[in-house]
Design a protein that fits this description.
Layout: H1 2-17, H2 23-46, H3 61-64, H4 69-79, H5 103-115, H6 119-142, H7 148-160, H8 173-189, H9 195-202, H10 209-225, H11 227-230, H12 234-251, H13 253-262, H14 267-274, H15 277-280, H16 290-302, H17 306-323, H18 327-330, H19 334-350, H20 357-360, H21 367-371, H22 377-399
Helix pairs in contact: 2-6, 2-7, 2-22, 4-5, 5-6, 6-7, 6-8, 7-22, 8-9, 9-12, 10-12, 10-19, 16-17
Length: about 400
C-alpha cells in the first residue's frame, strides 16, 4: 500500500510539474538533471587530468573549466586587449585576445568587480546562468511553432546534447546562445525594434551579426513575397529593414574596433587566421575556400583522397539543405529555417573545419525541434543516451588535455 501511495504521489507531482502553466518547472528540472550528468563527466576527467599549460594535475572543477579559450577570456577580463598586434618570428600576426569579443568577459569582469570573487567562479556562474536562461527561452521560442511536449523534449535534447558541457565552462557560448534565442524569439513575434539591443550585444559576444543580418534580409524578402496572403504593413517593413541594416553594421563593428585600436585594418581577421596557420600555413581569408583547404589538410592526416573529402563535404551540404525542406524542418516555420540556412552559409564562407567546428554548430539549436518530433519513448530514451555518450566522447577528444592536443574544443 505504501509503495502504491508513493507511486501515486510521484505521478501527481510529475503531472503538476509538466502542466502547461508550469512549463518553467519542467525546464528547470531538465536543466538541473542535465547539469548533474555533465558536471559528473567533467569531474571524472578532471580527476585524471595531468599537468598541462593551464593547470596542475587533477585540478578542481573551476580550474578545469577555465582552460583553452577560457584562459583568453581570463586575460581580457583582467587586462583587456593589446594595443599592438603580436607577431611571430616570421613577421606574421600571431594569436592574441583580439580573436575574442568583449561581451562575455565584460560581464564577468563587472561581476568580479562587484563581488570580488575569482575569475573562475564568476565565469562558470555567468555561463550557467545564461545557459539556464537559454533553456527557458528555448522552450518559449519552440512553443511558438511546436506543441508544448515536443518543445519540452527539444529542451532536453539541447541540455543533454554532446556539446552541452560548453554551457558550464568559461566560454561565451551560453551567453551568445541566450541572446540569439532572444533575437529569434522577437523575430518570430515580429517585434523588430526589440531586436536592436539584442543584436548590439550579441554581435560583440560571438561573431554572428552577419549571419543574423542575412537571416533578417531573407525574412524581409519572404514577408514581401507573401504580403498578399500574410500582410506586410509599411511600419513593420521599415522596422525590419532598419534592423537588418543595423545587424550588417554590427557584423563589422568588432573588425572596425580592432582596426581603430591597433592601427591595422585587418587586425581581427589576421588574428583569426593565426589559429588556422598551424593547419594550412599563413593564407588570406577567401570566402568559401577554407573547407576545401581543410580537406587538403585532413587528407594528409588521415590518408583519405582530397577529392573524396571534398565530395563528402558537398554531399553533407546538399543533404543539410535538403533536410531544411523536409516535413520535420518545415514544422519549425520559415524563420527558424532561414536562420539555419544563413548560419550554414556563414560557416561555409569564413570558418576552417577542425575540432572547434562542432562547437560552432551550436547555433543550429533549432535542429533539436526537428529531432524532438517523433513521440516514441524508445526513440527519445535512446536519443538522450546517445547525447550523454556524445558528451563523454567530446570531453575526451576536445576538452581533456592529453599531451600534445591538436583537437581544441
Amino acid at each position: 500500500m505504501a509503495n502504491g501511495s508513493l507511486a501515486s504521489t510521484a505521478r501527481r507531482a510529475t503531472t503538476a510539474i509538466l502542466a502547461p502553466e508550469r512549463w518553467w518547472m519542467a525546464v528547470i528540472g531538465i536543466f538541473v538533471a542535465s547539469r548533474i550528468v555533465t558536471t559528473s563527466i567533467l569531474l571524472a576527467y578532471a580527476s585524471i587530468q595531468a599537468t598541462n599549460a593551464w593547470t596542475g594535475p587533477k585540478p578542481d572543477y573551476f580550474s578545469f573549466a577555465k582552460i583553452w579559450d577560457g584562459h583568453w577570456y581570463y586575460i581580457i577580463a583582467l587586462t583587456g586587449y593589446p594595443r599592438e598586434l603580436p607577431l611571430t618570428d616570421a613577421g606574421h600576426v600571431s594569436e592574441s585576445a583580439w580573436a575574442f569579443m568583449p561581451g562575455y568577459p565584460g560581464v564577468v569582469r563587472a561581476i568580479m568587480t562587484v563581488t570580488t570573487l575569482d575569475y573562475a567562479y564568476v565565469a562558470v556562474m555567468v555561463s550557467v546562468g545564461f545557459s539556464l536562461g537559454a533553456a527557458l527561452l528555448f522552450y518559449r521560442l519552440l512553443h511558438l511553432v511546436l506543441p508544448s511536449t515536443t518543445a519540452l523534449f527539444a529542451v532536453a535534447i539541447f541540455c543533454f546534447a554532446p556539446l552541452s558541457p560548453i554551457l558550464q565552462v568559461a566560454y561565451a557560448e551560453s551567453m551568445a546562445l541566450f541572446l540569439l534565442m532572444l533575437a529569434l524569439y522577437w523575430l518570430l513575434k515580429r517585434q523588430y525594434w526589440m531586436l536592436l539591443p539584442v543584436i548590439a550585444v550579441l554581435s560583440l559576444t560571438r561573431p554572428s551579426g552577419l549571419a543574423l543580418a542575412l537571416a533578417l534580409g531573407l525574412h524581409v524578402v519572404y514577408r514581401w513575397w507573401v504580403r498578399d496572403r500574410d500582410g506586410f504593413p509599411r511600419r513593420e517593413a521599415i522596422a525590419a529593414i532598419t534592423v537588418t541594416a543595423f545587424s550588417v553594421l554590427m557584423g563589422f563593428a568588432w573588425l572596425l574596433i580592432a582596426a581603430i585600436m591597433t592601427g591595422s585594418l585587418t587586425a581581427y581577421t589576421d588574428t583569426e587566421l593565426a589559429w588556422r596557420a598551424p593547419y594550412v600555413g599563413n593564407v588570406e581569408l577567401v570566402p568559401f575556400t577554407a573547407w576545401f583547404q581543410g580537406a587538403g589538410f585532413w587528407q594528409t592526416q588521415w590518408g583519405i583522397p582530397q577529392w573524396l573529402l571534398s565530395a563528402l563535404l558537398v554531399a553533407v551540404v546538399l543533404g543539410f539543405f535538403g533536410f531544411l525542406l523536409s516535413r520535420p524542418a518545415r514544422r519549425l516555420g520559415v524563420d527558424l529555417r532561414l536562420w539555419m540556412l544563413s548560419y550554414a552559409l556563414y560557416l561555409l564562407a569564413v570558418f576552417f573545419p577542425q575540432s572547434s567546428t562542432f562547437r560552432l554548430l551550436m547555433p543550429m539549436f533549432p535542429l533539436a525541434g526537428a529531432l524532438a518530433q517523433p513521440k516514441s519513448p524508445t526513440y527519445r530514451i535512446l536519443l538522450l543516451l546517445a547525447c550523454i555518450a556524445g558528451q563523454w566522447g567530446w570531453v575526451h577528444i576536445a576538452w581533456w588535455v592529453d599531451n600534445y592536443d591538436w583537437t581544441p574544443p
